[in-house]
């Protein structure tokens, strides 16, 4: 095509996709059937990971649960069986260890089969100012929150692309979209996780693997204990999120092939503003929303897998 025709195509398709997106705001999206899928959730021993497993339990999937906490993962397995899951497999796995991720992934493929829905959920937070954070904790944050995604994708994506079927889910954070005072290493790890997930999504589109879907989840602070002590200056605008609500919205996003999920909905507005307002106005907005002071009373758990 020449420049004129390609530009015309861009305009026409852009108008079409915008109309399509607007219509979908008012029409409930059809949920896909995941019966028989093999769903792997990292960090499934507690928090959002456990809640997502519980919500997948009655949907006829095979659940593969990973966590570094043996008691936690056993409890999750017990709970999901109570909620109707009949095929549950759990494995101890330190997602910060590449060799262990590959070893356990190979075990899963031998014992369960090829994972078709991969949910990278395991994460940690130090909650310390950059200069106060030990190097070891900074490295661990990057290893769990970012690099683990590389290794799980390497392990499970080949089967998805071979079948042109699957779903990659990255549980990131709103802190991966906007820098937050006191969360330098955490923000860096989540920015990287989002960039990685977006890039792989583009690769899948470019290679025609449109049967492998992707979902990137960016919630505000969730009330799971991970961010205990963090405060929201304006709770009605940016509330601490209820874990049950977040887990429910994530499952809905997966079942409807939603590419991005930002929570609460005000985050969509905030991200739109970030890209168009002057930097100084952005700083004012950060002060107004509490992004500069929300971590002052942090006392959450250092580790959350």
Description:
The chain has 305 residues and is an alpha/beta fold. The chain has one domain (31-304): NAD(P)-binding Rossmann-like Domain (Rossmann fold), CATH 3.40.50. It is built from nine helices and nine strands. The chain has helices at residues 3-24, 47-56, 70-82, 98-111, 135-163, 184-206, 243-255, 266-274, 279-289; strands spanning 38-41, 62-67, 87-92, 117-120, 123-124, 166-171, 212-219, 260-263, 303-304. The protein has a seven-stranded parallel beta sheet, with helices on both faces. A two-stranded antiparallel ribbon has the order 5-9. Strand 7, helix 7 and strand 8 form a beta-alpha-beta unit. Helix 2 crosses helix 7 (243-255). InterPro entries: NAD(P)-bd_dom_sf (IPR036291), Sc_DH/Rdtase_CS (IPR020904), SDR_fam (IPR002347). Belongs to the short-chain dehydrogenases/reductases (SDR) family. Pfam families: adh_short (PF00106). Keywords: NAD, Oxidoreductase.
Topology:
Layout: H1 3-24, E1 38-41, H2 47-56, E2 62-67, H3 70-82, E3 87-92, H4 98-111, E4 117-120, E5 123-124, H5 135-163, E6 166-171, H6 184-206, E7 212-219, H7 243-255, E8 260-263, H8 266-274, H9 279-289, E9 303-304
Helix pairs in contact: 2-3, 2-7, 4-5, 5-6
Let me know the largest β-sheet: 7 strands, parallel
Share of residues in strands: 5-15%
Total number of helices:
9
The helix-strand sequence is HEHEHEHEEHEHEHEHHE
Strands of the widest sheet, in order across it, are 3-2-1-4-6-7-8
**CATH architecture title:** 3-Layer(aba) Sandwich
Annotation, overall tally of beta strands: 9
CATH topology: Rossmann fold
Structural class, please? alpha/beta
The level-1 CATH class:
Alpha Beta
Residue share in helix? 40-55%
Radius of gyration: 20 Å
Q: What are the low-pLDDT stretches, counting only 5+ consecutive residues below 50?
A: none
CATH fourth-tier homologous superfamily: NAD(P)-binding Rossmann-like Domain
Overall morphology: globular
In the residues, how many domains can be counted?
1
Average pLDDT score: 89
Beginning-to-end CA distance, first to last residue: 50 Å
Family: Belongs to the short-chain dehydrogenases/reductases (SDR) family.
Keywords: NAD, Oxidoreductase
Protein name: Epidermal retinol dehydrogenase 2
Organism: Umbra pygmaea
């Amino acid at each position: 095509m020449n420049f004129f025709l390609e530009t015309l195509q861009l305009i026409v398709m852009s108008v079409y996709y915008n109309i399509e997106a607007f219509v979908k705001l008012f029409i409930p999206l059809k949920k896909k059937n995941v019966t028989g899928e093999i769903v792997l959730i990292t960090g499934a021993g507690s928090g959002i990971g456990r809640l997502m497993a519980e919500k997948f339990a009655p949907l006829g999937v095979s659940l593969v649960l990973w966590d570094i906490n043996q008691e936690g993962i056993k409890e999750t397995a017990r709970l999901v069986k109570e909620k109707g899951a009949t095929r549950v497999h759990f494995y101890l796995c330190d997602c910060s260890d590449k060799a262990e991720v590959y070893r356990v992934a190979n075990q899963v493929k031998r014992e369960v089969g090829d994972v078709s829905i991969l949910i990278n959920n395991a994460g940690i937070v130090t909650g310390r100012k950059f200069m106060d954070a030990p190097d070891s904790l900074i490295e661990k944050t990057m290893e769990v929150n970012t690099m683990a995604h590389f290794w799980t994708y390497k392990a499970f994506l080949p089967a998805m692309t071979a079948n042109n079927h699957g779903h990659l889910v990255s549980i990131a954070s709103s802190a991966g979209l906007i820098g937050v005072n006191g969360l330098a290493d955490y923000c860096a790890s989540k920015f990287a996780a989002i960039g990685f997930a977006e890039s792989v999504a583009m690769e899948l589109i470019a290679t025609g693997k449109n049967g492998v879907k992707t979902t990137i989840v960016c919630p505000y602070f969730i009330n799971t204990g991970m961010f205990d002590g963090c405060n929201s200056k304006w709770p009605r605008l940016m509330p601490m999120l209820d874990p049950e609500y977040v887990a429910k919205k994530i499952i809905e996003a997966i079942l409807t092939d939603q590419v991005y999920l930002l929570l609460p909905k005000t985050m969509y507005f905030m991200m739109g503003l970030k890209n168009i307002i002057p930097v100084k106005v952005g700083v004012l907005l950060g002060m107004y929303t509490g992004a500069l002071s929300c971590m002052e009373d942090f006392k959450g758990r250092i580790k959350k897998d």
